[in-house]
């Protein structure tokens, strides 16, 4: 919008003149003003968030706002349910996912499945998360966001039974990096896998800095994690990030037929075997998670990241 | 057979009524009876074991009952020799393999090769191993089997010179999981690779819980180790479990031409280079072996495993 | 040459008679004589080294004798520049590479590129390095060579920003093993990857004993590192040693278009993300480097290695 453009111009002028460091040292009034400009900028570009489609609980389903969760045939399915926002993960959705995974780990299902509603699997972090700047300022926002991310990834590291991704469309950011912590990943041929961290001045998370090189070697992992290479489903399967790719037309039926068969296997044997596979790395993965989050918080508070995000929005607003 | 069916029915009735936990708490007479029923059940279904074809020692060959071992052209070849049982590994064969590998590690051959007689490479653990229940009961059987397995895997972890698998046909169970400890694996196109652990209520061994995810990534490893996916030779090569696949018609000649060339390379250079590659992981691999065996012993003594094995035999008897 | 043949014959006669152990215990005069024969042998076969083409420094280029180094568009490019020797690495080139990488790590470029002049990427260690036997004898030569190698590999382990290999032709030996420490590796279809260590009685270095099995699994790594398998560019890409392969006709233009785009990404984000990926392994990699060098020094001083190198030259002289 024209207003968005105007606000963006204001913001960019502001940054060009004052720079981030200077901004951080400004008096409280100016800081307030600057923060407001930043919030306005982001909000105007991202657009007002539409209210999430209400979850439709059925069976043993708990009522979540951003997820559809159900248990059937020994399978607990967690479905990201903000299709109008490409299942971008808000703060609320992070919290609900942590709760849903915690419950799924403890319920009597044999396997747990994560998938998305609509055409996307998940478009990653909802950038609106960064516009609700709390009292304590951006430092507080960064620390809180970091802590939320750390807790979120932790649930995956500790998940006690087979976790299966049913990747129904494009996956971006943290929804890709976490795939290294899934046990099986089935993808439609329409899916793509994209981790554009450096483009936004950020750094990898979800234990991908450790697991991606382990899965595919550093030469392929770095092209994704450093240089923003977007993989097709076939490429992701070739490098071992995805278990198998299916034609879109038969994707759901083929995958769910398999999952139902898996869910009939001995429950304890599966859980204990999965834990056996993961336990060797668990301590290291927690350390990696901590290190990744620490670096990311530093990044969020850096000039470079700030400027990269603004460039991104500026480019977007010109389209 | 009809008799087998009858015994199976008895056994299943028994289990349905008393369950495993109850069975374990039964008085000594009933336990004896129950054990006998279990032994009868398994024996009747698996069939009386035919005596192994006597090994035909030639050259420097030591006389083994279940193996053919010979040293020629700087190559010590250990050939699993129970083709009529698809080279299933009995307790005797486990012990002979430990001894044969120990000797091969110390002899003056440059490389050591393991292969199979007949159409199979190896059909895994001989389930008859579980029917000879000793005085101490199933707990003792489980612990002894675990200790045997631990010693068997240990020999592979510590093997001091290049170890090469010549996979002449289908491979099942522990004969697959151990491949991560081989240095080179050549397979005929006829070979398949199958680790149906959870189907039998069990858990992975042979260091596969650690090495398979390392070789092929967790997404592909878990489909094998948790969900019983059987790989073709080409698939096993794609994920890195197999070095190269050959047409059946030229398999033996192509592979042995290469092996003879390898065996002419400087002996110490090969042994020391192999040790250099493996030493970094050795401590971890021993810990993994211990953890896997501990879990497997727990599994063998669990209700779930017992019932899964019985379901397996029941299904088999219905064919 | 006939003279070379004669000297070789002398040398082989000498070795056949006296053997290495005996040689080491010879009186000082004979040792001197033997050393001279050895030097003469190697020199006559390898040929007198042509003087390196003088480096042509441009822009911010520092004057190196064996490298062309320049910084442009945020990219520091280090070009091996002994095309007439297939970019074989002399002692001087090792030292210059250490210095050039040290400078590149500290300059304000965003990425660093290593590539080769002419048709080869790099033919590995210049064997002439072994002919300049110092006062202290072969023991001293071996130790010094080991220490130089250790320092050289160390620079790669610690390199603080994205390091990209542009593999313009065949790569041999240490120029291959080091690829596991690069972040991205682009190769022309003409490139090959060869590590003929055991053929020369040696053992792997460049952290390949640890990183190659991690990248491609032990079954494929051992065929390269133990059994001298030479990979095509496509094969190296399949196993994950190479990121992507390009047709020779468009190799340079496609790769440099990408590199220029990469060099525009946020500098700190890239450097910090790369460090995040590598830091988990850094301590282990230094330990691996030390162990590999120690083993290699032992190898260089062994009978077996000495004889393997002589056999190699003998075979070469017969062509």
TrEMBL record, chains A, B, C:
Transmembrane segments: none annotated. GO terms for molecular function: delta(3)-delta(2)-enoyl-CoA isomerase activity; fatty-acyl-CoA binding. It is found in: Peroxisome. Residues 1-51 form the ACB domain. GO terms for cellular component: mitochondrion; peroxisome. SUPFAM superfamilies: Acyl-CoA binding protein, ClpP/crotonase. PROSITE patterns: ACB_2. Keywords: Isomerase, Peroxisome. It comes from the Eukaryota. This is Enoyl-CoA delta isomerase 2, mitochondrial-like. It comes from Sinocyclocheilus rhinocerous. The lineage of its organism: Eukaryota, Metazoa, Chordata, Craniata, Vertebrata. The gene is LOC107713764.
């Amino acid at each position: 919008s024209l207003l968005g453009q105007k606000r963006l111009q204001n913001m960019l002028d502001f940054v060009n003149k004052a720079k981030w460091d200077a901004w951080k040292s400004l008096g409280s009034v100016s800081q307030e003003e600057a923060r407001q400009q930043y919030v306005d900028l982001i909000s105007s570009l991202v657009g007002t968030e539409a209210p999430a489609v209400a979850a439709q609980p059925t069976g043993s389903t708990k009522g979540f706002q951003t997820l559809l969760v159900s248990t059937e045939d020994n399978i607990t399915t967690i479905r990201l349910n903000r299709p109008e926002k490409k299942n971008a993960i808000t703060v609320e959705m992070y919290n609900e996912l942590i709760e849903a995974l915690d419950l799924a780990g403890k319920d009597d299902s044999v396997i747990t499945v994560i998938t998305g509603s609509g055409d996307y699997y998940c478009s990653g972090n909802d950038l609106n998360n960064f516009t609700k700047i709390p009292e304590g300022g951006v430092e507080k926002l960064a620390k809180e966001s970091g802590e939320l991310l750390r807790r979120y990834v932790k649930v995956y590291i500790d998940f006690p039974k087979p976790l299966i991704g049913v990747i129904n469309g494009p996956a971006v950011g943290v929804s890709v990096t976490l795939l290294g912590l899934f046990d099986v990943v089935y993808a439609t041929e329409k899916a793509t896998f994209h981790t554009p961290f450096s483009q936004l001045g950020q750094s990898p998370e979800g234990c991908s800095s450790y697991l991606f090189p382990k899965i595919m070697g550093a030469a392929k992992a770095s092209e994704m994690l450093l240089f923003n290479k977007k993989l097709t489903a076939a490429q992701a399967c070739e490098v071992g990030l995805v278990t198998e790719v299916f034609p879109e037309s038969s994707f759901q039926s083929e995958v769910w037929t398999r999952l139902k068969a898996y869910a009939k296997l001995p429950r304890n044997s599966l859980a204990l075997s999965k834990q056996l596979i993961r336990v060797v790395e668990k301590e290291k993965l927690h350390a990696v998670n901590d290190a990744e989050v620490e670096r990311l918080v530093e990044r969020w508070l850096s000039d470079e990241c700030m400027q990269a995000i603004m460039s991104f929005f500026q480019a977007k607003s010109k389209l």
